[in-house]
Write a structure and sequence with these properties.
The protein is an alpha+beta fold. The chain is 14% helix and 31% strand. It is elongated.
């Protein structure tokens, strides 16, 4: 809250004794044991389950530790045994998802240093809810237990709780809780401001260790007991106390309203004191006091209980750093004052806006796809001093969301195709994806980014042709496209076809010699086979080189006989005999 502004608001809730009603469902609770790395969770308060912290809420950032054994006690809950610390990076965040946008939630962070690192330090660091400062954690003793609680409106379907290293020690956390609230509760909580809990007190019980929470409080608010039996007398009832449904905007649980205190001196007052704690981030904090009253006694006839509430002896407003809140009986009262419970809050602004939701979705998908290991935690652009590395954002007028205008992921080890989520960064002007191992084609949708003036895709393994939309942007001078050192990328369809023909010719040049070699080998083998000598019958006196297969009739083909006769040599005597002393002419006659 700005310096010089101080808000002190007093709210009172009236209650009556009514019949019991059904217990609300606890669906929507998230209870996280930060640093506990078991495979499954374990039973928490009531029917709740405590979830392990295996890195899914922090993108596997941070390290788990056990607190020192000397700070572990038998009565200590299991959720205090571990912490998760964040030695690297300025900002590290837990992201809680699947929430209801616009709903109010109680966010509770728990811390116990317990000398987990053996250094016996006293770390100091900041907490942010989303992009808005929440609280400064200041641990002064190893055994100290600190619970920081806020009630806020969640603008999206997720909530980020961030630990910011301010240079005064390594941030750590023991546990994180999230509890949904009805929209009608705590009307002081709006989209513009949240409430940080200072104290929540249950008056009346005499057992200091008594704590009321879920399931007695369906919203799992934690009510601590304030005991002073010397000064105050207890009033109590065993009946169920139910708040009036129309008038009550805070719904204190019956278990808290069943007890109250009143001064032992019937003419005395009830005095409650709180100290203001200004911080550099909020030098003049505003406070809200919520006082809960429920009449638990049957009053005699004509009895009057009438109260007046003052702050520092002044009604309602005060600018001192110490608040003395007194509850007094009025002059008309016949009974002393009383009170059942009280809640005290400081106000913190939530007017800082996060990055445009479409930009957040796109860059988060890019981070997940390419496993970006840079310090990409929390909101991409806000606060401005914590914007993500390699991103440039624009910050417009008050009330407008920052936009991502420059993404420089050169030499970032990106693998795979160009994710379509890049086309959802509609305010981007400069996109540098050079010198990575991107493959596949260039999405034509990139040409539809209206403000994109430089697109650097050089030094990758992209293929196919440059989309026509991008070529048009190049031609009209609205975009500088850099695509060198992509061996398989061509500028248009024709060059791609030429590239394909070139590849085909290259394949032919390689294949033709191989086919020729195979043909030569085959012909050589065939010739060798044909030139091998055939086996012949060498029986003497045989005139013919033929073998008659068994069981077949031997015959002489006339054509083959003639061929054998044409190749036979005759003596002179044989010719004289055949031609009848050369009187018969061979080749004439009916069979000639």
């Amino acid at each position: 809250m700005a310096a010089g502004q101080c808000l002190l608001l007093l709210c009172m809730a009236a209650s009556v004794v009514l019949q019991a009603r059904a217990q609300p469902d606890s669906k929507g609770f998230i209870t996280l044991d930060c640093g506990f790395t078991g495979e499954t969770g374990y039973a928490g308060v009531g029917d709740t389950t405590v979830l392990p912290d295996n890195g899914e809420f922090t993108d596997n950032v941070g390290t788990s530790h056990n607190i020192s054994a000397e700070y572990v006690t038998q009565s200590m809950a299991k959720s205090w045994y571990n912490v998760r610390s964040f030695a690297a990076g300025v900002r590290n965040c837990y992201t809680l998802r699947s929430l209801v946008s616009g709903l109010k939630y109680i966010v509770r962070a728990r811390f116990k240093y317990g000398n987990y690192d053996g250094l016996d330090l006293h770390p100091v660091f900041d907490l942010y809810i989303g992009v808005n400062y929440w609280h400064t954690v200041n641990i002064s003793r190893p055994e100290e237990v600190l619970i920081v609680e806020a009630t806020v409106v969640v603008p999206d379907d997720f909530l980020q709780v961030c630990l910011v290293n301010t240079g005064a020690g390594t941030p750590f956390i023991s546990g994180l809780d999230l509890r949904p609230l009805k929209k009608t509760l705590y009307p002081q909580v709006t989209a513009a401001q949240g409430l940080t809990l200072v104290d929540r007190i249950n008056f009346g019980p005499t057992n200091e260790s008594l704590i009321v929470r879920y399931p007695d409080d369906p919203h799992d608010r934690i009510w601590f007991t304030w005991v002073d039996t010397v000064t105050w007398a207890e009033i109590s009832t065993t009946q169920t106390v139910q708040t009036l449904p129309v008038e009550d905007l805070y719904q204190a649980p019956s278990a808290v309203l069943q007890t109250a205190i009143t001064p032992r001196n019937v003419s005395g007052n009830i005095l409650l004191t709180w100290s203001s704690k200004p911080t550099p981030m909020d030098p003049s904090p505003g406070y809200i006091f919520i006082l809960h009253f429920a009449e638990l006694q049957a009053l005699p006839a004509k009895a009057v209980r009438e109260l007046r509430v003052n702050v520092n002896d002044k009604p309602w407003f005060n600018f001192d750093y110490t608040y003395n809140l007194s509850i007094e009986a009025t002059s008309n009262a016949t009974l002393p004052p009383f009170i059942n419970a009280a809640e005290v809050f400081t106000v913190f602004p939530t007017t800082n806006l996060g990055t445009d939701s479409q930009d957040v979705s796109a860059i988060t998908a890019i981070k997940a796809k390419y496993l970006v290991k840079k310090n990409w935690m929390g909101d991409p652009c806000a606060p401005k001093t914590m914007a993500w590395d390699r991103l440039t954002c624009s910050y417009g007028a008050v009330g407008s969301h920052p936009r991502i205008t420059n993404v420089s992921l050169s030499s970032s080890g990106l693998n795979g195709d160009i994710l379509s989520s890049f086309t959802n960064l509609t305010a981007v002007q400069y996109l540098d994806l050079s010198n990575n191992n991107l493959t596949g084609s260039i999405p034509d949708a990139l040409s539809q980014l209206p403000l994109l003036t430089v697109l650097d895709l050089s030094g990758n393994q992209l293929n196919g042709s440059i989309p026509s939309g991008l070529l048009k942007r190049i031609q009209d001078g609205s975009m500088d496209l850099r695509y060198g050192n992509n061996p398989n990328l061509c500028t248009d369809v024709n060059s791609c076809q030429m590239h394909a023909k070139k590849n085909s010719k290259l394949a032919l040049y390689i294949a033709a010699p191989a086919v020729l070699l195979v043909l030569i080998v085959s012909v050589t083998v065939l010739l060798i086979c044909l030139r091998k000598p055939k086996k012949q019958d060498t029986n003497e006196g045989s005139m013919h080189n033929s073998i008659t297969p068994p069981n077949e009739t031997s015959h002489v083909d006339s054509d083959s006989s003639l061929q054998r006769l044409e190749s036979r040599h005759f003596t002179h005597k044989e010719l004289q005999k055949i031609t009848d002393n050369f009187q018969r002419v061979l080749g004439r006659g009916g069979f000639g």
